[in-house]
Each structure stands twice: as C-alpha cells, then as structure tokens.
Design a protein that fits this description.
It is a single chain. The chain contains eleven helices and twelve strands. By secondary structure, the chain is α/β, with parallel strands linked by helices. The strands form two sheets. The protein has a six-stranded parallel beta sheet, sandwiched between helices. A six-stranded mixed beta sheet has the order 7-6-8-9-10-12, with helices on both faces. Strand 3, helix 4 (about 90-100) and strand 4 (about 105-110) form a beta-alpha-beta unit.
Length: about 325
C-alpha cells in the first residue's frame, strides 16, 4: 500500500474518533486568497472535507500581508488550535521561528520545508510537481497544432520553475522540435493574484504562436485561462481541477492534492505524525484531471501515452529532472 493510501486510510479511521479531539485545527492561507480556484482553494476544500466527515470545526484566516504570517501562527498556537496548517513555501521561515515556542502544537507547512531535526513538531508536505507537469506537458504537445506551447508562472521561485521544467520535458519528449515559451508574473507575492498581468502574458505568448498555455500562478492563472478561452486556444489549469471554468477550452489540469494533505493533517489532529512527506505520482499526490469538461479534448492516443509515461515514471524508467535539485533545467532556459 502506498504512503498516500495509508495516509487516506488513517484519515478514515481517525475520523471515527475525531469528535473526541481536544482542540480544533486551524488553516492559514497563503497570499492570493482562499477562493483563488487553485492552490488555496484546494486547501479550503480539504478543510471542508474534514469538517463534513468528522463533524468537527476549524478556524481559518486569509493573510493580507507578509507581516501577518508569524502573527497568525502565534495567535492560533496561543489559542490552543492544533494542528496549525499553512499553505505556501513562504510559511517555512515563520514556522521555524515560532515552532520551538509551542512544543505541544503541531505545525504543517504545505510546499515549505522546516528541518525536522530542529523542529520535531513540524510536518513538511512536499509534492513532485515536476512529475505531474511532465504529463500535462506531453498532453500540451500532443494537442498543439503550432508546435509552440506556453507556461506562465506566478512568483519566480524555484518551486514554480520546477513546474515549468517538468512541463517542458514532457512537451519535448513528445515533440523534440516543440518550442516552449516561459514567463513568470513577478518576483513578489503579488504575482499570485494579478489576473490582468496573467492575461497580458497569455496574449503575448499567443502572439508568439502558443496554442496551449499552462498556468501555475494561483489567482493570476485565472486571467490566463480566461484569455486562452477568449482567444480560442487551450489552457491547462493547476492544483485544483479547473476544467469546469471554461469547459472545452481547458485541456486538463495538473492536480496537486493539497486538499487531501490538509484533510489528513486536520483529521490526525494533535496526534499528527511530523517530519517530511513527499507526495509524487506513486502516491497519487499529483496527476492530471479528466472529466466531462475536457474528455472531448483528450484523445485515446493522448490518454494512453500519458498513462504509460505515468507508469514509467513510477517505475523509474523515465526520470523527470527536478529543477529544485540543482537549480537547473535541461529542457528550458530561465
């Protein structure tokens, strides 16, 4: 049984006794807002699933500024919430500053990393985004009629370059002559919530021939998806299943199961197992979305090729280079 499935099994078992929990969990969303239809909203859906399955409750907060990160952590810990779950790599440093002051509180950083040797009460949840992005890159190249595909990231950080690099590798695996255009929205957290800039970047890439664009940019990505639909090209969503936003225009979405990670952490409660967890294709931590909204866009040939690659990646027969391993990408220049 995979680690991820064990995780799910533990959630189901713990759900039966969740009513006896001594403290409610809390959730801190990253900048970009709870309802970004992407990363933060996936976390929200996980919290809602926890509440529905267990009858429990939770407290959440949407950050408005960088200064609120540590404040929110301390407020929730002081109030007795446990665990305190956070989204976004930017919570790593604040958690490292706060965790030792509240040794009986469990903290979770999704997408961030905190040294477990120094902070044994922290769980770092990481994802193999490069693997899921490789699969949707394959789909992009197979669906493209121009041979040019695009990527639009949010904040220019190693994590988002990891998405872009995996995507480029997948596209080039299908079509070695493919052209992959990559742009980042900005270098500050504001890059996560700028749909107007996302739209502008999408139009620029369309002008360069891109007919499929993958957005990994939080709320900014909504501008990319809308512009792609308006300009009659295909887009690829991220984190949550965004296929329904523009049915027939979103080729697929690269799923990142933030919802399950949040649900599981909240369900475990104060008994949360800490350390570092990596969720990859093997654990169904990442993947691609197929539903009624995009089924007409995904041919049998496309699905067969992508599903075969998925199994080859899990088996180690295909190795997708992880940008974050050495800050380089063999398939794309930044």
């Amino acid at each position: 049984m995979s680690l991820f499935n064990k995780f799910l099994g533990a959630s189901a078992a713990l759900a039966l006794t969740a009513g006896a929990a001594l403290a409610d969990p809390a959730l801190i969303y990253d900048l970009g807002g709870k309802f970004d239809k992407s990363f933060n909203e996936a976390a929200f859906m996980g919290a809602e699933a926890f509440a529905e399955a267990t009858g429990g409750s939770y407290k959440d907060i949407e950050l408005q500024s960088e200064a609120q990160r540590e404040q929110a952590l301390r407020r929730f810990a002081e109030a007795g919430f446990n665990p305190v779950v956070t989204t976004g790599f930017s919570m790593s440093s604040p958690i490292a500053s706060v965790a030792a002051d509240y040794p009986d509180t469990k903290f979770v950083t999704i997408d961030g990393y905190v040294d477990p040797a120094e902070h044994p009460n922290v769980l770092s949840v990481l994802f193999a985004e490069h693997q899921g992005s490789y699969l949707v890159g394959m789909m992009a190249a197979m669906a493209s009629e121009t041979g040019t595909v695009g990527f639009i990231g949010g904040m220019d950080i190693p994590l988002i370059r990891k998405f872009a690099c995996g995507y480029a590798q997948g596209a080039l695996a299908v079509n070695p002559d493919a052209k992959v255009i990559s742009n980042m929205t900005g270098t500050t957290p504001a890059a996560w919530n700028d749909p107007v800039k996302g739209s502008e970047l999408a139009k620029a890439q369309i002008g360069q021939g891109a007919d499929v664009i993958y957005a990994a940019a939080g709320g900014t990505g909504l501008g990319v998806l809308q512009t792609a639909a308006d300009e009659d090209i295909l887009s690829i969503g991220v984190d949550s299943n965004q296929n329904h936003l523009y049915p027939g225009k979103v080729l697929t979405s690269m799923l990142k199961r933030v919802d399950v990670a949040v649900n599981d952490a909240m369900t475990q409660g104060a008994d949360l197992q800490t350390g570092v967890m990596m969720l990859s294709l093997a654990e169904n931590g990442v993947g691609y979305a197929l539903d009624d909204n995009n089924a007409p866009l995904v041919s049998g040939e496309m699905k067969a090729a992508v599903d075969a690659a998925r199994e080859q990646i899990i088996a180690g027969e295909i190795v997708v280079h992880d940008y974050s391993s050495d800050d380089s990408c063999p398939a794309l220049s930044f």
